[in-house]
Design a protein that fits this description.
With about 100 residues, this protein is an alpha+beta fold. The chain is about 20% helix and about 40% strand.
Length: about 100
């Protein structure tokens, strides 16, 4: 069984979209998008837990209803993955 850090590491090493199969016969389409630095100035809109100037990694979660990739920082996607029963991760051979 995979853990969240193994999944994120695999996504970083191969940025192509992957399918993450979780309990309940569900697959999530995930990918690594980019690394960014938050603004240096204190911004009241900065999410809790983030510091000005902090470098973050951004991952994508595909939303079929919106037909686009939702951008999630590593901290958020890690919390999401901890709450799922992770089964396996495969490269998505039907990617755009």
């Amino acid at each position: 069984m995979l853990n969240p850090s193994e999944i994120l590491s695999q996504l970083r090493s191969n940025p192509r979209p992957h399918l993450l199969f979780v309990g309940g016969n569900v697959a999530l389409r995930l990918c690594y998008l980019y690394q960014a630095r938050l603004p240096e100035m204190l911004d009241p809109d900065l999410p809790l837990g983030y510091r000005p100037g902090q470098e973050i990694e951004v991952f994508g979660l595909y939303s079929p209803s919106a037909d686009e990739w939702l951008e999630l920082p590593q901290q958020t996607i890690t919390l999401m993955l901890h709450n799922l029963r992770l089964l396996r991760l495969e490269e998505d051979d039907d990617s755009d």
